[in-house]
Hints:
The chain is an alpha/beta fold. It has two domains: 15-330, Thiamin diphosphate (ThDP)-binding fold, Pyr/PP domains (Rossmann fold); 331-365. It contains 16 helices and seven strands. A hairpin with a 2-residue loop joins strand 4 and strand 5 (203-204). The longest helix has 26 residues, at 29-54. The protein starts with 14 loop residues before the first helix and ends in a 6-residue tail after the last helix.
Amino acid sequence: MIQLLSADGKLASDAASAEYIPYIEALSDDQLRQFHRDMVITRRFDLEATNLQRQGQLALWPPSQGQEAAQVGSARASRQQDHIFPSYREHSIAMIRGLDIIEVVRVMRGVSNGGWDPATNNNFHLYTLVLGSQALHATGYAMGVSLDGATATGDPDRDEAVMVYFGDGATSQGDVSEALVFAASFQAPTLFFLQNNQWAISVPVSVQSRVPLYLRAGGFGVPGIQIDGNDVLASYAVTRRYLDEARSGGGPRMIEAMTYRMGAHTTSDDPTKYRHDKDVDEWALKDPIIRYEKYLRGRGESDAFFTETAQEAEDFAADMRARTLELGPPSPDDFFDTVYTEQHPVTAAQKIWLAEYEASFGSES
């Protein structure tokens, strides 16, 4: 398992990690600080969204606490031209890719009939609630990227790759296996990013697989690697390398990020029914934010930076709460306007019919 940061925040010096250290050395101080901001803001936002759901303001919420490092590091490793296919708890990735996070809230509040347009949101595709199906979406898109000649041109500023996120539970779905088959057969520039958070709702990964999940990729002819998913630097460096290899024509790759879902699967779940407190307590000691803060402090980062970041996170959460409470019901037009990127004659006709039907009842006196 690749780990660049020890539990006490020290940069690794072993041979296995040495080839990834140059990726970290190339980062500026501002980029290193941004990793911390991303994780802290995401966690505070995630807590606020959970509270909103408990207060009846959201229909559902999938918490991401504990998985911030895996998400932030990998997302920051992507390039603007890359396409990202998330599952349903990739909140930090959405923010990093430039999506207004209120769009995610709208989906979970039930006032959005589709989500957002990936073409106008830095190629960040829609949340996928059908387990594992996004792996097929991503692979199909990556096949198109390759067939269109948008990869392996030798220009890293233009070459595209596709990254898809899913959890350990999704690896038991046939969709993921089928995606690996097609990605390998067509050497599609797909990076399969598996966040192994140890639980597929209430089923532990030890029941799902008798071997480490990244080894499954090899059976399809796809190189795989396992990383410490609570190490933001390892997530960044390995993802950066694997995306570069995919863009340059190296074919698909898989990363298994070992992490832990500290909260519930979703707010409709009670993890105390199937998890032991001992396991949760052990993983709490591996908190990715605490570990990275130790690293930054070891580099001489001041108390002022951490104080400012905490306040920034509070302001972000407060703004999100206020905007959530202002959300109104969706317009009937959304049923038709969010189906296709361009107007379609069938949905256009349906939209007119519905408007005329509603008008036939007349106005209330």
